[in-house]
Fold:
Amino acid sequence: MSKRILTTEILTETVPMLLRRGSNAQQIADILGCKYNTLKVRCSQAGVSLRGPNGERPPRQQRSVKVNIATLDMLREKALAAGVTEIDIANRLLRIIAEDNLYNAILDDAA
Structure:
């Protein structure tokens, strides 16, 4: 059985201290070695707020994008061949496009 990371002490003392120091929820999850959603749920169950010192909400970690079925099927096919999910493939493609500023090259825009 694995050791519990998110003990009551961690949730009630360490998490608020890290928030006061300016860490956001994703950074706290990374520091504690757990998933963001796990931290969010466990803090909610313990009555611990993940809002910053001024009451600001943490930034959203995910957004949904609608993709037509034909495109999703093509992503799924590539994902199966690579041994990952279609979501992993889509996230990787979008991240590379954004990081490498490949918008014009992919969209054939001559700007």
